[in-house]
Design a protein that fits this description.
The chain is an alpha/beta fold. Helix content is 42%, strand content 14%. It has an eight-stranded parallel barrel, surrounded by six helices. α5 crosses α6 (121-129), α6 (121-129) runs parallel beside α8 (158-174) and α8 runs parallel beside α9. The mean pLDDT is 97. It binds 3-methyl-2-oxobutanoic acid. 3-methyl-2-oxobutanoic acid binds at residues 23, 42, 44-46, 84, 180, 203, 213, 215.
Length: 265
């Protein structure tokens, strides 16, 4: 089976077909995501929070990301796998950024994502020049949480909105194949989506974007330390897991498990 390509991904905007993206970090969920028919997987640095239990994404390393990217890319049969560049892997210099982006492709990803606007345009330009497809990420950028003062909506103020729009255009010009818009007002997401020819992928940016992305554990109702307004839990797997584990403990304690059905005669 062949993988979804970047041109096929982009074609969906032209066809008016919404693009569904989800994060995954391991082989089991990669297979489940694909069985559900989703074709784009982001190995997000959100793994710092949902897998590693940290309060933000800043401590995630290249080695962490490459480990999970390799696992997801090996398990994926059809999905376009995008690796998320962690904090400090692309900020220091264009050279380091290109080298680290290339390591994601060597790990099996078909593209990378990085956060930021004007500050990363030279990185995006260099990466695309060397055949590394780049997805941008604007609005609320979690790696800048210390500067932005928390996880809050960006681009409410007209001058801020204008800057985000200009940055989106600059990323497209530099060669980005798509851009994530996180936590921005729907009206701004709409303007950007209309003005760009590359797809916009929203998270907390309304239904006007060309596609949507969610963190897998959020949409499955597994992670409830912090549930932003933009998350819709489509399942309640944490509640199911708690119930299952409590029942298992009770049955072990009262001798109901294992029964003859789970024992060898
Ligand atoms: O790290 C991540 O999972 C992300 C998405 C939520 C866009 O950046």
């Amino acid at each position: 089976m062949s993988h979804l390509t970047i041109p096929e991904f982009q074609q969906q905007k032209k066809q008016g077909k919404k693009i569904t993206v989800v994060t995954a970090y391991d082989a089991l969920f990669t297979r489940i995501v694909e069985q559900a028919g989703l074709e784009v997987i982001l190995v997000g640095d959100s793994l710092g929070m949902v897998v590693q239990g940290k309060t933000n994404t800043l401590s995630v390393t290249m080695e962490d990301m490459l480990y999970h990217t390799q696992i997801v890319a090996s398990a994926a049969q059809r999905a376009l796998v995008i690796g998320d560049m962690p904090f400090l892997s692309y900020q220091v210099s264009v050279e380091e950024a290109v080298r680290n982006a290339g390591r994601f492709l060597q790990a099996g990803a078909a593209a990378i994502k990085l956060e930021g606007g004007f500050s990363v345009v030279d990185r995006v330009e260099a990466m695309t020049r060397f055949g590394i497809p780049v997805m941008g990420h604007l609005g609320m950028t979690p790696q800048s949480v210390n500067q932005s003062g928390g996880y809050r909506v960006q681009g409410k103020d007209p001058s801020e909105a204008e800057k985000i729009l200009c940055e989106a255009k600059a990323l497209e010009e530099a060669g980005a194949f798509a851009v994530v818009l996180e936590c921005v007002p729907t009206s701004l997401a709409n303007t950007i989506t209309q003005e760009l020819s590359i797809p916009t992928i929203g998270i907390g940016a309304g239904k006007v974007c060309d596609g949507q992305v969610l963190v897998l554990y959020d949409l499955l109702g597994l992670f409830d330390d912090f549930v932003p307004k933009f998350v819709k839990p489509y399942a309640h797997l944490k509640a199911d897991a708690l119930q299952a584990l409590k029942r298992y403990k009770e049955e072990v304690e009262c001798g109901a498990f294992p029964s003859d059905a789970e024992s060898y005669q």
